[in-house]
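pasting for the record
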Amino acid sequence: MLDINFIRENTELVEKSAKEKGYKNVNIKELLKLDDERKEALKVVEDLRKERNETAAKMKGGKPSDDLIKKGKEIKEKLATEEKILEEAESKLKDGLKVVPNIIFEDVPLGPEENSVEIKKWGEPKATGVDHLDFATKKDWVDFERGAKVAGAKFYYTKGGLALLENALLQFGLKKVTEHGFTFMYVPDMVSSRVLEGCGFNPRTSDQSDEYYIEGEDLAMIATAEMPLTGYHMDEIIDEKDLPKFYAGYSACFRKEAGAYGKYTRGLFRVHQFNKLEMYCFCLPEQSKEIHEKILAVEEEIWQELNIPYHIINIAAGDLGAPAAKKYDLEYWSPVNQKYQELTSCSNCTDFQARSVNCRVRRKDGTIEFVHTLNGTAISLARTMVAVLENYANEDGTFTVPEALKPYLGKDVL
């Protein structure tokens, strides 16, 4: 979330960013009013606490008078009432802050999704390709029918060559991220509501909530390893000398895919459960823009070694989520659909998430401030398998193993 003092001092900027991101329920005037009410309640509580302490001091060293005892009780009762008012005021302010998205960088294109700007192309797009679902089904490599029988629509089994391909892609991705200094981690597949909220995945509308919640527990299934990684240093202060910290978290990801109407959903491209290797960084504020470019470069290196054509787009404000100040998408060329399709992304969330989970840095001079956080997809397995199958599956029913994956599969053809 944003700092209320920053919002007060930069009202127009915050309002503009919220509007550009499509968050229509942000009322800055009302938010500042809630903060004023919180400040008033806090002053009353602080004055009462001071009076309580002064009265308690007078009671020491002898038997207190009846009037003093009566006054002490009155202060105690009034303080309890005012503390409850303060708690409610703080809660209302916090709820109000939750719906305010991060501000956008100056170089973010304004407007809706279609205003996103292509900044780079790589590779020669193929004119033809093999549909991944038809190919994998004929090879008996994927089973959506039994997946639906066991768990519901858009759940699936991978088997045989496709399961081996998924494992090879993970091993390849792991090699790349560890070469670039990321510490590999297995992470929890569930997070508490505090971590979930701290990540800032606030839907624009109530029907866009994407998480699966655990009934009777303060837990939700994660949509990405970004969530538990965001909470890894929650309520911690990291010394400046220990930043940046680079992590690569591997996990299953669970998504309702709410709000996905009208988007490409065939086969493995958009499912309710998949595995993903996610890059994450905690860094100093002055490092985050450079590190954003580094994470993007790692993503590009992965797809160049797999030799799959792609382009990079600077995402328009209207398609940015609440936490991101800027986001790049890497989209691969689909020879089947003859267009670029979503594959990976990387975002600079500045101090938006860190403030929510209370992750800070202690500078060399002793001052303390919030860190910046960034995230980026290394390998999103289901979608990656779509891209690889479309580019390497053959009409004769064989699959040519990409050069980069041969060390992990031990074969040239599957």
